[in-house]
Each structure stands twice: as C-alpha cells, then as structure tokens.
C-alpha cells in the first residue's frame, strides 16, 4: 500500500512532485558477484547493480563486504551484516569517520579520491598517502606532472612522484589538498598515511577506530 503526503508537505521537504521520498534505512544483506548487492530497503529486499537505483537508493560501489550507497542526499558505507544505515538530518558538516577492524587486524574502507571510488587501508607508519601507479591511472591522476622523488618501501628505495590530491572523501567526511606519492608496483589498497591522518584526532576502542576531524 502506498502512502501519499499532502502537496504542501512534499514541497516543504524539498521534494518535487513525482519523486519518491528517501528511505528511512538501508542494510547490506549480501553480495551477488562483483557488480550487484542485495539491499534491505525499509524492510524490502532488492537486488541492485552498481550504478543503478532502487527505491531512491543508488549503489555506488561494492568491495570486501562493504557497499557505498547514496540516499537521502548523502553517501554512506554499509558493512555486510552490520546495523542498517539511517538518514539522519545534519545541522553541521560531518567530522567523524568510524572504521571497524577488518581481517588481519587492518582498518580498510571504501572512499573516493577526486570523486573516483577506490579502497583505502589505514597506515600510520606512512608519511604520505601512497598510491600505486596502476591505481593512479585508474583514478585518472596525472601523476607524471608531479615532483619526482625517491622513497623507501618494503622493496627498498624506489622512484616516486609527489602530487597533491584535490579531495579525499570517506563516508560524509571530505578533506581537501592532501599530499600523496605515486609509486611503481601493485598495492591492494591506497595507503592512508599521515598526510591524511594528521588532519584527525585518532582513537581506538576495542576493534573500532574513530577519526575526528581537527580542522
């Protein structure tokens, strides 16, 4: 059964006639390969492909038991089996990133660099955000115009390019003008080093890491 709101209330909510109301909650309930996810939207199971929408929810990306969805004018990262994401009105810019511990004791998440989706791994021992050349090319970064440097990795001293990223976004928190290095070889994730982490106050409680934006 469908419910309809009076026209004045629709307009007061900023919704044009003919558009659906945003859902109250969304939960990730399963993965169907690398391109689809089973979402529970307000209690109804819907299969959604990456880039497609259902009941006002758009599936942006899926990876490693997580899904990035967009609904209610916001983007959220959902974890398989976790509590549903909710639309919560915000009166101020979001300032907090919450990361549950993953396999091997690492903290990983899906986010965006310059608006392009990628996966991150927190690395408190890295001076800067580190990106492999292969991933940099996927993200459309023009790293060869950056400053040529050398850096120390697990494989020894290697040549690298130092660049400035326009934005890094994780969940609803976006940080601008972040220093990064692009290095040869393959890295499974973009390493979130201290050029990003130093913008936050970090604390760990049990298996959860919380990053609170300093400025």
Amount of helix: under 10%
Structural class label: mainly beta
Principal-axis shape equals: globular
Beta content:
over 45%
Ends distance: 47 Å
Q: Radius of gyration from the CA trace?
A: 19 Å
Largest sheet: 7 strands, mixed
Residue-averaged pLDDT: 81
Q: Which H/E pattern describes the elements?
A: HEEEEEEEEEEEEHEEEEHEE
Q: How many beta-strand elements?
A: 18
How many alpha or pi helices?
A: 3
- Low confidence ranges: 1-21, 87-91
Structural summary, described in words:
The chain has 215 residues and is mainly β. Strands 10, 11, 12, 13, 14, 15 and 16 form a 7-stranded mixed β-sheet that branches. The model is unreliable at 1-21 and 87-91 (pLDDT under 50). The chain has helices at 7-12, 133-138, 194-197, and strands at residues 25-32, 36-41, 44-49, 53-54, 57-63, 66-71, 74-79, 85-86, 96-100, 108-113, 116-122, 129-132, 147-153, 156-170, 173-183, 190-192, 200-205, 208-213. The protein contains 3 helices and 18 strands. 7% of the residues lie in helices and 53% in strands.
């Amino acid at each position: 059964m469908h419910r309809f709101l009076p026209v004045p209330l629709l307009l007061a909510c900023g919704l044009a006639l003919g558009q659906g109301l945003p859902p109250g909650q969304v939960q990730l309930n399963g993965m169907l390969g690398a391109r689809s996810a089973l979402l529970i939207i307000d209690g109804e199971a819907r299969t959604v492909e990456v880039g497609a929408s259902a009941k006002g929810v758009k599936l942006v990306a899926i990876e490693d038991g997580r899904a990035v969805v967009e609904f209610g004018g916001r983007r959220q990262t959902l974890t398989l089996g976790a509590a549903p994401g909710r639309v919560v009105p915000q009166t101020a810019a979001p300032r907090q990133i919450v990361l549950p511990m993953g396999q091997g004791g690492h903290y990983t998440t899906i986010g965006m660099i310059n608006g392009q989706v990628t996966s991150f791994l927190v690395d408190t021992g890295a001076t800067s955000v580190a990106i492999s050349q292969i991933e940099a090319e996927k993200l459309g970064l023009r790293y060869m115009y950056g400053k040529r440097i050398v850096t120390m990795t697990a494989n020894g001293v290697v040549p690298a390019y130092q660049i400035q990223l326009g934005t890094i976004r994780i969940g609803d928190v976006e940080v601008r003008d972040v220093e990064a290095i692009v290095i040869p070889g393959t890295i499974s994730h973009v390493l979130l080093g201290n050029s990003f982490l130093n913008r936050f106050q970090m604390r760990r409680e049990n298996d959860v890491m919380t990053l609170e934006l300093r400025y």
